[in-house]
């Protein structure tokens, strides 16, 4: 091999090694980025942080001291004017001279009250249906039983409501619910009976859930989100999805095997919807073009935190501060009774937003295609910072929707809060045992969450359901 030929071979090998080093450096950077991600700089849940990291909120300090603020009424046990029982304690002798105190000696009373629960046990009401023989014709006529008394032995609406409430609202597992009812109330319900009560409650509330769904389709602004959950089936526990659609007054959950458009079509709220859909940017939501879209800026703040802290890029921190300043300006204007920002203020915000994005793009150029690799189909792989910049630039109107329409929220925290009960249930139980049980959970949680948002007691409402007259929903304001 001539020196020239050897030089060509060496140059080729060096180029290949250089490309390999660049690829390995990119892989190391990606792995370091994955390790550095937690709940404060990504969409990972706080439960994944472990015990090593001290939780830190993205909220800025208010400047107020911790605890109750001046003027807060506080929460304490108040003396009632109508006690159920009064016990009088009277001294017999004077504590100074030890002389007996006469009954007519002057004095005054000090009130002290003990608030406690009375002993609670099952109350059994027996209905005796008399059979009376007619003295004229000899025919025997039986008295009609009340509509709510349909069996020789049954549990009343209050017992059924408490059992369903413990399982669905307080997430107490079936076995522990059975123990609690037996220990506190003396009610020995089998786990199978509890399962039947939950499904019975869901069946009775199916119509109410449909009303919630119809009301959501008419709401001007909707929050959407989804989360995975394990549901046991014929082949073991498989991954399915719980989708939530909600407002401040309404909540609707639905289970589906798919995460995307197939599930949204089956749920049936987004097809034909003409309001504003607030979500975290999942592509399936953009399939619907009859509505407007708004993106969750809480997600953007966390991603910008990652770019600022882990990649050391200053523009990300400045953009975080700008988004928060926009949010504060909108809240201040709304409090003052305005319905929109001053055009000059709005234009300054947008100009600054676009300038910071331009600075970010300059610092994160699109990577060139590898010269020695075969051309691949699809979008070229980019850094997390570049992906974030592309989203913030391409969907600028959706990111800043809250700036132009005060009815649009800054984030999608409403849907994230409404999804939290699903994750709590899964953490407690590990998996749902069947698809019908999961569907019953979705129906009951939809109605219980909506009742709570509308100021209704979930326990009292469930009692009304099992008594045969569900409480009506309030018209959304």
Largest sheet: 5 strands, mixed
- Mean pLDDT, rounded to whole units? 87
Beta strand %: 5-15%
Overall strand count: 7
Work out the radius of gyration: 32 Å
Gap between N and C termini: 85 Å
What multimeric state do the chains show? Answer: single chain
What spatial order of strands do you see in the largest sheet? 5-4-3-6-7
In helices, the fraction of residues equals: 40-55%
Low-confidence stretches: none
- The helix-and-strand class reads alpha/beta
> Can you count the helices?
15
Q: What is the 3D form? A: extended
Could you give the order of the helices and strands?
HEEHHHHEEEHEEHHHHHHHHH
Record keyword descriptors for this entry:
single chain, 477 residues, alpha/beta, five-stranded mixed β-sheet, two-stranded antiparallel sheet, 15 helices
Model description:
With 477 residues, the chain is of the alpha/beta class. It has a domain at 297-364 and 384-410. The protein is 45% helix and 9% strand. The chain has helices at 3-36, 157-168, 174-185, 191-204, 206-217, 261-267, 297-311, 314-335, 343-363, 384-394, 396-399, 401-404, 413-429, 435-453, 458-466, and strands at 131-133, 140-142, 221-233, 236-246, 251-256, 276-279, 292-295. A five-stranded mixed sheet has the order 5-4-3-6-7, with helices on both faces. Strands 1-2 form a two-stranded antiparallel sheet. The mean pLDDT is 87.
């Amino acid at each position: 091999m001539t020196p020239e030929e050897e030089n060509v071979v060496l140059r080729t090998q060096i180029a290949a090694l250089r490309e390999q080093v660049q690829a390995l450096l990119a892989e190391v950077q990606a792995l370091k980025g994955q390790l550095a991600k937690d709940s404060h700089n990504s969409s990972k849940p706080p439960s994944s942080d472990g015990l090593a990291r001290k939780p830190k909120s993205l909220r800025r300090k208010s400047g107020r001291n911790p605890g109750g603020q001046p003027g807060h009424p506080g929460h304490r046990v108040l003396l009632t004017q109508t006690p159920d029982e009064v016990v009088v304690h009277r001294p017999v002798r004077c504590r100074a001279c030890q002389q007996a105190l006469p009954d007519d000696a002057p004095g005054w009373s000090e009130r002290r009250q003990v608030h406690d629960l009375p002993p609670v046990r099952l109350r059994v009401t027996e209905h005796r249906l008399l059979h009376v023989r007619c003295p004229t014709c000899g025919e025997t006529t039986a008295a009609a039983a009340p509509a709510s008394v349909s069996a020789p032995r049954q549990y009343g609406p209050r017992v059924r409501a408490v059992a369903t409430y413990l399982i669905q609202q307080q997430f107490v597992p079936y076995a522990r619910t059975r123990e609690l009812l037996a220990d506190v109330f003396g009610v020995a319900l089998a786990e199978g009976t509890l399962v039947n009560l939950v499904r019975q409650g869901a069946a009775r509330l199916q119509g109410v859930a449909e009303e919630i769904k119809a009301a959501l389709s008419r709401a001007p602004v909707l929050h959407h989100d989804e989360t995975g959950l394990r549901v046991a089936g014929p082949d073991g526990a498989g991954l399915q999805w719980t989708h939530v659609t909600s407002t401040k007054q309404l909540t609707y959950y639905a289970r589906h095997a798919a995460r995307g458009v197939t599930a949204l079509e089956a749920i049936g709220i987004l097809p034909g919807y003409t309001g504003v859909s607030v979500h975290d940017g999942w592509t399936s939501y953009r399939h619907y073009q009859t509505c407007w879209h708004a993106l969750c800026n809480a997600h953007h703040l966390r991603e910008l935190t990652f770019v600022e802290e882990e990649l050391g890029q200053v523009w990300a921190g400045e953009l975080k501060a700008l988004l928060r300043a926009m949010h504060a300006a909108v809240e201040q204007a709304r409090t003052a009774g305005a319905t929109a920002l001053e055009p000059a203020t709005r234009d300054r915000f947008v100009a600054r937003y676009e300038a910071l994005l331009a600075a970010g793009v300059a610092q994160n150029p699109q990577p060139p295609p590898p010269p020695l690799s075969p051309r691949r189909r699809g979008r070229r792989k980019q850094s997390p910072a570049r992906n974030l910049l592309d989203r913030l630039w391409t969907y600028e109107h959706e990111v800043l929707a809250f700036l132009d329409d005060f009815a649009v929220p800054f984030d999608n925290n409403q849907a994230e809060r409404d999804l939290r009960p699903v994750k709590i249930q899964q953490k407690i139980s590990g998996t749902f045992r069947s698809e019908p049980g999961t569907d019953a959970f979705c129906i009951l949680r939809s109605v219980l969450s909506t009742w709570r948002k509308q100021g209704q007691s979930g326990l009292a409402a469930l009692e009304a359901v099992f008594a045969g007259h569900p409480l009506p929903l309030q018209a959304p304001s």
